Amino acid sequence: MPHPLLTPELLATALPHAILHPALDSALPPCFNSISSDTRSLQPGALFVALSGPNFDANRFVPDAARLGAAGIIASRKPDAPLPCPLWVVEEPLQAMSQLALQWRRLLNPQIIGITGSSGKTTVKEMCGAILATRHRSAMTRGNLNNHIGVPLTLLSSPPDRTHLVVEMGMSAPGEIAHLAQLAEPDVGIITNIMAAHAGGFGEADEASTLDAIADAKGELASWMPPTGCMVLPADDGRFKRLRSKADCPVISFGSRASLADCSYGPISLGEAGMQFTLQTPHGEIGITLQAVGEHAVRNATAAAAACQQLGLPLQSIAQGLSRFQPGAGRGAIVKTASGMRLIDDTYNANPGAMEAAFQALSQLATPQHRVVVIGDMLELGEQSAHYHAGLAEPLHRWGIQRIFTAGPQMRALHDALSEQPDIQCHHQDDPAAWLGRLAAELSPQDTVLVKGSRGMRMERIVNDLK
User: Fold this and answer.
1) Does the annotation flag 269 for ligand binding?
2) Which of 78, 94, 255, 414 is least enclosed by beta carbons within 10 angstroms?
3) Digits of tens for pLDDT over the chain (467 positions)?
4) CATH superfamily name and code, 110-324
5) Which ranges in the chain are annotated with CATH 3.40.1190.10?
6) Residue 467, annotated as binding a ligand
7) Four-point Cα dihedral 334, 147, 111, 307, nearest 10
8) Start-end ranges of CATH 3.40.1390.10 in the chain?
9) Which residues form the Mur ligase central domain (predicted)?
């Protein structure tokens, strides 16, 4: 049976109110070979969607898209000059792209894993992808295209021969996950954890209320899961019961052995090949080797294993897939410098819970005198930002980290909290760039250095400087 194609006929079905302006020769292409919302990466034969933003009008790129070989265009108005390709005019191109994505998802009908959570989404996505690839033709979200634009693009970019798809879902405010879940219609959902990430978008007065609000927003995935689906939830998260109450489908829990989760991990050992642990599931147990560092990576692997098992993957495939997983740049990758010093490149993003998990990972890799952190501001924490930054002093102490370099105006709160502790060496710069060219003199080849901060702090500059 031939695979379905993204055709003008499918577009007409998904967008019945679109106004078609034919090409100069009145011909319609047999199909579109890709979809793009950016003329810089547009390939000939693609369907181009002109997505305007608050500060730019994408309709002005329509002639460029046609010149670059677009086989069709969706826009909110017709340009003055005729085009060499068909144009569909709609009131809102983003909504049209979402409608088309849902139509394409239902036509392909792959089994879909939808993933959200405060941290670990991309890592769990990559782990699920590695497991599924051992048995199936699968696809997954590219990079972090996990928002109201990225999820439709992910669905529409899925090749027609893929039987399984992993979709990452991000959010910064309530209601967004519900919208993405409606689009993706996942068969299995994962919520990795609930932490104070994007807390500024919730406006709650205290930490407990903020976490409740974040749990409710992430829990929209559980609320939209059909009774035939399954939710994979973190058993050792303080909001587990709150999340479970939102699901009208079976729930599989994951966590440490002590959490009594359905899928759990046992004692962790660190060797030359990475971390080894025993994965215990309702269908048996198996030894896992993971090329990553930190208990949070093991927890993420357990979540991925639980979800893939719900789709019929056997334990042997789960172990094989996880053994092939490698953390990407900025997501906990370990880099060795020319001098022999080890860097933990965790620069992609940060929130308080993820910071603590990274501190724990550092403590597993180095002796106390050789543990060093270089940490930048955690952004989007709202009015409680100073509280969250100063609060990092406790996990730093708990994990035996005494050499600390901070960067960014928000990190001043942590520096001040540590300044009166005699056993702590803490140095601060308001601008991360001020550490460039200066940190190397403070470090030795025996040190293991964690570099972490929110994406906007561009802490990868420090990693590159120290390499």
Assistant:
1) no
2) 78
3) 456 789 999 999 999 999 999 998 888 999 999 999 999 999 999 999 999 988 889 999 999 999 999 999 999 999 999 999 999 999 999 999 999 999 999 999 999 999 999 999 999 999 999 999 999 999 999 988 999 999 999 999 999 999 999 999 999 899 999 999 999 999 999 999 999 866 666 666 688 888 999 999 999 999 999 999 999 999 999 999 999 999 999 999 999 999 999 999 999 998 777 899 999 999 999 999 999 988 999 999 999 999 999 999 999 999 999 999 999 889 998 889 989 999 999 999 999 999 999 999 999 999 999 999 999 999 989 888 999 999 999 999 999 999 999 999 999 999 999 988 888 999 999 999 999 999 999 999 999 999 999 999 999 999 999 99
4) Mur-like, catalytic domain (3.40.1190.10)
5) 110-324
6) no
7) 50
8) 8-93
9) 115-308
246 is in an annotated binding site: no
Please check if 39 is assigned to a binding site: no
Distance CA 254, CA 265 (A): 8
For 101, other C-beta atoms within 10 Å of its C-beta total: 22
CATH architecture of 8-93: 3-Layer(aba) Sandwich (3.40)
Are residues 165 and 188 in contact, defined by beta-carbon separation less than 8 angstroms?
no
**Which of 250, 354, 254, 345 has the alpha carbon at shortest distance from 301?**
254
Is 118 annotated in a binding site? The answer is yes
Question: Is 122 a known ligand-binding residue?
Answer: yes
CATH 3.90.190.20 domain locations along the chain:
333-466
For residues 357 and 30, give the distance between their C-alpha atoms in angstroms, rounded to a whole number: 51
| CATH hierarchy code of domain 333-466 | 3.90.190.20
